[in-house]
Task: structure prediction
Amino acid sequence: MSQYVKKDDDRDEEAEYSPFSGIEKGAVLQEARVFNDPQLDSRRCSQVITKLLYLLNQGDTFTKTEATEVFFSVTKLFQAKDIGLRRMVYLIIKELSPSADEVIIVTSSLMKDMNSKTDVYRANAIRVLCRITDGTLLTQIERYLKQAIVDKNHVVASAALVSGIHLLQTNPEIVKRWSNEVQEAVQSRAALVQFHALALLQQIRQNDRLAVSKLVTSLTKGSVRSPLAQCLLIRYTSQVIRESSMNNQTGDRPFYDYLEGCLRHKSEMVIFEAARAITELSGVTSRELTPAITVLQLFLSSSKPVLRFAAVRTLNKVAMTHPMAVTTCNIDMESLISDQNRSIATLAITTLLKTGNESGVDRLMKQITNFMSDIADEFKIVVVDAIRSLCLKFPLKFRTLMGFLSNILREEGGFEYKKAIVDSIVTIIREIPDAKESGLLHLCEFIEDCEFTYLSTQILHFLGIEGPKTSDPSKYIRYIYNRVILENATVRASAVSTLAKFGAMVDSLKPRIFVLLRRCLYDNDDEVRDRATLYLNTIGGDGSVFETNKDVKEFLFGSLDIPLANLETSLKNYEPSEEPFDIRSVSREVKSQPFAEKKAAAKKPTGLGAPPAPTSAVDTYDKLLLSIPEFSTFGQLFKSSAPVELTEAETEYAVNVVKHIFDRHVVFQYNCTNTIPEQLLEDVTIVVDASEAEEFEEVATKPLKSLPYDTPGQTFVAFEKPEGVPAVGKFSNMLRFIVKEVDPSTGEAEEDGVEDEYQLEEFEVVAADYMLKVGVSNFRNAWESLGPDFERVDEYGLGPRESLKEAVSTVINLLGMQPCEGTEVVAANSRSHTCLLSGVYIGNVKVLVRLSFGVDSAKEVAMKLAVRSEDDAVSDAIHELVAN
Amino acid sequence: MWEVCRRLSNFGDKCVFWLYRDKNREADVNESCPSVKNILLLDSEGNRVAVKYYSDDWPTNSSKEAFEKAVFTKTQKTNARTDAEIAMFENNIVIYKFAQDLHFFVTGGDDENELIISTVLQGFFDAVGLLLRGNVDKKEALENLDLILLCLDEIVDGGIILETDANVIAGKVASHSVDSGAPLSEQTISQALATAREHLTRSLLK
Result:
């Protein structure tokens, strides 16, 4: 409010004529007393409500008592007959969102309105009532809502249907009973009723694939009127296509004709939705793509920015997978580089970068140079990312592209932008050996004048690894030592580490490095001095401590292979005692989730990223299991699997299992949820039949005392197994419990219960359960450092497969290992693929796998599997996994 | 202990982890119903005239204001007077159009069909134009705030699009307006008088 009060003081301000100038909450609340007048002044009441809404809209909040007071006086206004006032009353009730006990007061008034003769009242009363109601009230009004859905007034029908969509979230079982009425509404002649009915019907049947498929089949033939409903139908159609996959011999996709037909619809909205749906079909062929690309190309030259944006954004996505299909649009794209809307221009540039051929690179870079100066950092980052991929695609052009990157690195820019550039240069250096020397020099020059500590330390670290391997390592020393003289403590400390790495790797530089390191002993920062001392000792600066060369290198270059967050928690739990902290006790498990990037891979740069933060799931499991006395003797938890569902969705009892692997035991944690409000389960146990898992022997169970409605609980069963052996087997399960009826109104359970059983699905313990997903930062280094001693190589035929991609992911899942360096992604239509995997096998044995796949014209996939590990037996075990 | 120390001393510089890119994860949310995350009507300084949020992406008033400020500043200089313009913010698309000192915005998720959002904006924009009888400016909008709020209520319900045809929207709102005999103008005059009176009193008291 303050700005309005302030403006009143300034007489020249236009805003002083605002009807709300000087408005104050207290005064308006006073005014709200007119609602209680015996003779209601409708207009005045409306104005006061508007003022109240204005206050709420500006972010003012009412206290609980104020809100209650306003609400109560507002309810008096139901006496007034004025339609306008009633509409305002509806609005304010929705805004105040009254509590359950208050709702009762307006329920009867609203129900009266719901059955009134005025359609406006009916539609709005339905929306308000459904917004504020709870489950119990809903059953009372259900009958009216069902009628309203098929009401001949389309506003009323829409109101009921939209409310149904909202209510489905909270009271699905009630809304699901309406499906006959909704079905009828889908046939409605009113365009929007059809749209709302379609949305609701699909959500009701979401879990029933067959029903959705039938719905789509019938509607794609018939006439869907509104463009919105048509868009919705396109979405459902692509869902059905996705789930049905190509199953007929001709290779024709079901419903493709429908999507293609929509490209000729009269509404642009529908055309675009269909075009987008086609481009997103999995494994789309260029023949299928062509018509969609053609309409999108037309949109590119539209006068409407929104259309151009939508088209260029979609084409940009297509260019990632099918660059050739998009090249036809290149001329139109080039004219978009000068588009007023910079988002469109950036998307056009990055699309061109993806689709361009090698000869066009130079010309394109010239255009981009002009363009870069007038866009914001966030767009620049997108361009930098695109240039990086271009460089990896055309390695011969690295000189031009590297030159461009080093130029923009020198210009002004924020942290994220600079980081994107540095990341790109680092990626290029790694991937293109020829680019190494010039790239490193560009980075060196950058840190000479770099205001970002984070980037400086990252670059110094990178220099330490790559610099010593170049032809003339000495030329980098000057840049590094300058950091020790000029920078803040953090950068100085990393510069010291980098110097040490040069000293360890390059014998000829050693004496000179020692001189520099000794100078660092007088630094005024602890960390810098400590590091200098440490390194002088490790690499034998004063000859007092001397370790073997291998240890030194391992120390300097080996990576910290445990997740930092796990290390942090372990250190926090460590209590000072005689026993030294053992780094091996730190859990190594990283959930794979952080690796899976969020949407749109292009947005996030790869490069000098921070290590992925592990989720705390492992920790919580660890703590949970330790807290159970029966299991506390099992030792260190090796791995916990992801939950495996043992029941279908939406059954009475939902159960999933987590497999916890210990050295000599496995513990199955069954997470149970009771979804029936009228039941209380007690003494819940799982009866496990392990007859198909011979090596396992049941040792303990921990039943769950009681399982009330909607509160998840756990029960455990532990098995003993031979130590260190990756025993596998199949387990079938039965949920056994005592069920007691619960009175829903009081929530109290009856005394007597009945014993009952519930069959669950079976699950298996597989070899992948004994493999931890642990990534390595540099696969090649790790591979070489493991050495060929325990390498096992063999070839396998995998038989005919659906696609190469499918074969690769099957093998990855079979092994349960962490794919490295993004090699789990198979380029579309490629005939061969190499995939790098890393993991830790039970017994803490590091394992690396290199998979080479090839596919022939008959889709027969062949695979070469090379395993390196720290243990002969483990290498063989991996092969056995695949062989079986 | 030694091992921990040496590893820790190194880790600061050793964070060269490569994030894995997952190109295969196409947005698979598309079977959901088209939805609108918010509708904003701001003035030429970025202050609220009327706003309505339908998504939990902005839980607090301050996060809402921050979003409005970001959207306003970024779009301020663009020319969105003849055709609706479009921009991306975080993971949202915002489609906007300006008239006089009023800025209209509609936000949707980044996998939403841009043209659907644009239709909603056009519906809102034109309906306001009809309701304000062509005088689309901040003063008029505030004087008829009740109509604007009802208009928002008729376009989108909890994120789901109710109606996009401006004539239908305006028709529904107008039929509700306070005693339809001599509605808008009279109310406006009386309000203007009240404001003028208030203003006079205040300046006298100074």
